[in-house]
Design a protein that fits this description.
Layout lengths: L5 H19 L12 H9 L5 H18 L7 H11 L3 H14 L4 H16 L6
Helix pairs in contact: 2-3, 3-4, 4-5
Amino acid sequence: MKRFSPTCMAAGMVIGSAVFLAGCAPTHQTLYYWGDYQTQVYGHFAKEKSPEEQIAKLEAGLEKARASGKPVPPGYNAHLGILFALSEHADQMLKYFEAEKKLYPESTAYIDFLLRKFNQDKKGAGNAI
């Protein structure tokens, strides 16, 4: 039977430990580019930031998402559309609503609901999306 030297055994233990610990390393890869999206949604509901401030942050996030090659999460474009509706930029609202429907076809019913609500509010007292 072949015996291993203490040096060889120590080297084997170090290599084995390194391989084992590499498997435990955090690999936090996300499917989507989240950027500042969650903070902006919170800011919207907490009324901490104006729609214009949120739009600027989220549009910058879209550029970073494109650069990273990852899509934005569901709701990102819809939220931008809502912010544009609040700032009375219907053309931009439609652009982002259509982008949401294209990326996430399952959102079509929700986006169509928002569009109907926007059109009703436009005819009525105001814009309450």
